[in-house]
Write a structure and sequence with these properties.
alpha+beta; three-stranded antiparallel sheet; 35% helix
Length: 186
């Protein structure tokens, strides 16, 4: 043909794109949370699905709402097929979440390095926020928390604070004079 060579085989072609709703395709490796959006008022099996890969621009969220044919957050049915957020936080996500708040949380989480992500996970476990806005507030105040990874005892915590935290000048020759346990208690 003028367009190339045609081969006849037994492969059946199936059209997946309906002109409006794209299939889920994670094209960006910086995705923190994937959300499947459908209209709550339509049967779940037949409702077209629009996927959001947070963080993204707010205008993309609005465009996705139009694609899913929903006007408000209350009209949306949300599923979370993929999440890099701490498990304690991801398990609490519900269908009625405000996508803008969730997007802000994901943007803040994306900016963290690996050490701060572990610290944020520990803060979420300790505080147990029940709303996305509270988790976002904790993320914004993350520098207010001390994090001692691997400290299981008071002595471990005292050793971390004196030796590893960088707050004090540590001299290993004076190691036997340090009372790590007492420092950890206080």
């Amino acid at each position: 043909t003028p367009y190339g060579i045609v081969y006849e085989n037994d492969m059946c072609m199936k059209q997946l794109y309906n002109g409006q709703h794209l299939l889920d395709y994670q094209y960006d490796c910086d995705t923190v949370l994937t959300i499947a959006v459908t209209d709550r008022h339509k049967p779940e099996e037949s409702a077209p699905v629009t996927y959001l890969h947070l963080p993204m621009e707010n205008c993309q969220i609005e465009r996705a709402m139009l694609r899913a044919d929903v006007n408000t957050f209350g009209d949306m049915r949300l599923r979370y097929p993929y999440s890099e957020l701490p498990a304690e936080l991801a398990d609490q996500l519900t269908e009625g979440e405000n996508l803008y708040d969730l997007n802000d949380l994901c943007a803040g989480f994306q900016a963290l390095d690996d050490g701060d992500r572990l610290k944020f996970e520990a803060v979420i476990k300790m505080v147990g926020p029940d709303m996305v806005t509270k988790a976002a507030n904790l993320l914004a105040q993350l520098d207010q928390f001390d994090f001692a990874p691997g400290a299981l005892t008071l002595e471990d915590y005292g050793r971390y604070m004196i030796v590893d935290s960088g707050r004090y000048e540590y001299d290993s020759e004076l190691d036997r004079y340090y009372d790590f346990r007492k420092y950890g208690e206080e």
